[in-house]
Design brief:
The complex is a heterodimer of chains A (257) and B (396). Chain A has 257 residues and is mainly beta. Chain A contains two helices and 14 strands, in the order αββββββββββββββα. In chain A, the strands form two sheets. Chain A has a twelve-stranded antiparallel beta barrel with strand order 1-4-5-6-7-8-9-10-11-12-13-14. In chain A, strands 2-3 form a two-stranded antiparallel ribbon. In chain A, a hairpin with an 8-residue loop joins β7 and β8 (141-152). Mean pLDDT of chain A is 90; it is low at 1-23. Chain B is 19% helix and 40% strand. Chain B contains five helices and 23 strands. In chain B, the strands form three sheets. In chain B, strands 11, 13, 14, 15, 16, 17, 18, 19, 20, 21 and 23 form an eleven-stranded mixed beta sheet that branches. Chain B has an eight-stranded mixed beta sheet with strand order 1-2-5-9-8-22-3-4. In chain B, strands 7-6-10-12 form a four-stranded antiparallel beta sheet. In chain B, β3 (100-104) and β4 (107-111) form a beta hairpin. In chain B, α2 (52-74) runs antiparallel to α5 (231-251). Mean pLDDT of chain B is 91; it is low at 13-32. The chains are: A mainly beta (257), B alpha+beta (396). Chain A binds chain B through residues 34, 37-38, 43, 45, 47, 49, 51, 68, 70, 72, 82, 94, 100, 115-117, 151, 153-154, 186-189, 192, 215-220, 239, 241, 243, 245-249, 251-253, 256-257, and chain B through 1, 3-4, 7-8, 11-12, 15-16, 18-20, 22-23, 25, 40-43, 45, 47-48, 194-196, 198-199, 201, 271, 284-288, 290-294, 296, 352-353, 393-396.
Chain lengths: 257, 396
């Protein structure tokens, strides 16, 4: 009887925590139309630091503040074909003052339709599946993202309408629509400023990131951004960093012969 | 915040080292000037720069070259043969000594053969589509029956009445068994296409044993004279190239051609695109061409032999763009190997999309021209302006 009462008491809290856990993203990226060349291996290191936030989230069963949270992900991406790449991620998280803990794994696939300039707008499709550590969350999540891309002179405009859904476990199974968008000035090779917008319509969060892509040669790109929350459901200030390494591991003449 | 910075600082150099260690691709090296290089068919796969249909157009041009090659090796009385080596299909012919025209200051003069008793011809085709491979650096060593090197020489590239190739007169000591040992160095020109462009990076070796009877050789008419009679055959590859050019006009943002004297000159403009290049000895695909607006257009020029329609290699082509009367820039356009349409080209930065005027300039080809009648051409320099060409900006 006592156990049942505790469950009833805890249930709204667990549900709130689950909602809070999804209240804000840990990683921010507007996905691009381009896929790596076939045989290329990408290795990306993602970091997000929440500098100022009034929000809290669920971290291994505890409700903790997002302020001071550091999230880190390691991604390996392989271009299976010229149009299709597969990636695997491991995510880690540390609330302020805590040590890093593995939180979840992700797998994703990205397929682009046709070549740039084949159509007025370029399209690609992105699918992602989250498999959390069982102590971090009981729910796996699937995400589908349409990538729309258009170049106008030196500007690139990218739009990612997104649908995500928890497919099992305790989280709400409701569809969660969102959108992310980016505009980039690509005139220079070594430095490309941009602005990115992220919004989740389910939890009403919205973030705006001035960004910069710094290139250290053709194979290393560092994407940096400072994010500002646009409403009370968003972190107030966030820094993001994505270090991207593109490594041509298999020569085409050996891969395709 | 400190751990955020630490994680980036720690991982950055590790990944940088991994990335740099794999960033280039070096051609395989062969350390002997002997033996036959094993045949390795070059890539011919659909890509972002070549559809199946476009690759078939290149193959059609190669088929036309094959018909010419077949005529050459069946020409009665010649010592001739074809063999695959490395990424090439190589046809050799030993014939009577040849004369040729050399170009100097808008004039050509005929060089008659002297103190020689044979001429070695070499025609090098792409091992995949059988098009003539653009100019290569080819060395020849002639060995006697004991395997001793009698002499070494270069086989220079030349315009020839039927298909372009390589050749030189040689002096053999007498009848007997000889081995013609050929070395083909990898070309240094740019190559389009991230996949198909990865070709011709190895040194290639070819051994041709021939039992020579000099009387048989001297009894024949010069092969170039026989070639000159094959007018229809000589136009086949050019017709195929013209068909391909039309396909390029369809794909490109603008393109057309004109005839000036001995030349047909075509241009096409596309979006800026990547290419393979040797940089500090490392052969790599320059992805950076697609990664920014540093360049935003690709200007292609194809000078052709007006009579046969064949592409003219080894020219110093200069392109100049004007917006109304204002000069935007002038560039030496490098030769670009392309999976279906050889051309001279480079990536440009233009201020915006719109209409431009394109000035094309080049001097006559400096290489030898075979054929007593047909070889007397390409004497004038070209300076022509295509008006109102439509450039769209972007990166492929």
């Amino acid at each position: 009887m006592m156990i049942k009462r505790y469950v009833f008491l805890l249930l709204p809290g667990i549900m709130l925590m689950a909602a809070a856990a999804k209240a804000q993203e840990s990683f921010y990226r507007v996905y691009q139309f381009e896929t790596p060349l076939q045989g290329h291996l990408g290795f990306n290191v993602w970091d997000t630091y929440v500098g100022n936030s009034n929000l809290s989230y669920g971290h291994f069963g505890k409700d903790v503040s997002r302020q001071g949270m550091l999230a880190q992900a390691f991604e390996a991406e392989f271009a299976v074909t010229d149009h299709f790449s597969l990636s695997a991620y491991t995510n880690f998280e540390a609330p302020d003052g805590s040590v890093m803990h593995y939180s979840e794994a992700r797998v994703e696939g990205l397929y682009r339709f046709g070549e740039r300039f084949d159509h007025f707008v370029n399209f690609a499709l992105y699918g992602e599946y989250y498999i959390p550590d069982q102590h971090y969350s009981t729910s796996n999540e699937a995400e589908l993202r349409l990538i729309m891309d258009k170049d106008i002179e030196d500007f690139r405009l990218v739009l990612n309408p997104t649908l995500s859904k928890y497919v099992n476990g305790d989280e709400s199974k409701q569809l969660q629509p969102g959108i992310s968008a980016g505009a980039y000035y690509r005139r220079l090779f070594f430095l490309q400023p941009g602005v990115e917008y992220y919004s989740n319509f389910y939890d009403h969060s919205a973030m705006l990131f001035p960004t910069v892509d710094l290139r250290f040669g053709p194979y290393i790109t560092w994407n940096l951004g400072a994010g500002f929350g646009l409403n009370s459901n968003s972190d107030k200030f966030t820094i993001k960093s994505i270090l991207q390494f593109d490594i041509p591991v298999i020569r085409p003449s050996r891969l395709l012969r | 915040m400190i751990s955020f910075i630490k994680s980036i600082v720690f991982l950055g150099p590790v990944c940088l080292m991994v990335s740099l260690s794999a960033h280039g691709q070096q051609g395989d090296m062969h350390d002997a000037y002997n033996g036959n290089s094993k045949f390795k068919r070059p890539l011919s796969v659909p890509s972002n720069e070549a559809t199946k249909k476009q690759l078939a157009l290149a193959k059609a041009e190669g088929d036309a070259v094959d018909r010419c090659v077949n005529w050459l090796i069946k020409n009665p009385g010649e010592y001739a043969g074809t063999q695959n080596a490395g990424e090439y299909k190589v046809t050799w012919i030993l014939s009577r000594p040849e004369g040729w025209y050399v170009y100097n200051d808008h004039r050509v003069s005929w060089i008659s053969p002297a103190h020689v008793n044979a001429h070695l011809w070499l025609f090098v085709q792409d091992g995949a589509d059988h098009r003539i491979v653009p100019p290569l650096d080819i060395s020849l060593a002639v060995l006697n029956s004991r395997g001793e090197t009698l002499f070494e020489t270069k086989l220079p590239y030349a315009w020839m009445p039927l298909i372009n190739g390589y050749g030189n007169n040689i002096e053999l000591p007498g009848n007997g068994d000889y081995t013609f040992s050929v070395k083909i160095n990898p070309p240094s020109y740019h190559r389009h296409d991230p996949y198909n462009g990865d070709r011709f990076t190895d040194e290639t070796y070819l051994q041709v044993p021939v039992a020579v009877n000099l009387d048989r050789i001297s009894s024949k008419q010069p092969l170039s004279e026989a070639m000159e009679k094959q007018k229809d055959l000589a136009r086949l590859a050019g017709h195929a190239y013209a068909h391909t050019l039309k396909n390029m006009y369809k794909q490109a943002n603008d393109g057309r051609d004109t005839v000036i004297g001995d030349y047909k000159i075509a241009f096409a403009v596309e979006y800026a695109e990547g290419f393979w290049d040797y940089e500090h000895g490392v052969f790599r695909y320059k992805v950076e061409n697609d990664m920014s607006g540093r360049t935003n257009a690709h200007v292609e020029i194809a000078p052709l032999d007006a009579k046969t329609g064949r592409f003219l290699d080894n020219l110093n082509v200069t392109a100049t763009l004007f917006k109304k009367d204002k000069k935007i820039g002038s560039m030496h356009e490098h030769f670009m190997w392309h999976p279906w349409l050889y051309h001279y080209g480079d990536n440009w930065r233009v201020p915006s999309a719109g209409n431009y005027n394109l000035q094309v300039q080049f001097e006559p080809p400096a290489y030898r021209r075979y054929g007593r009648t047909d070889g007397r051409q390409f004497l004038l320099q070209v300076d022509f302006i295509f008006n109102n060409i439509k450039i769209k900006t972007g990166q492929k």
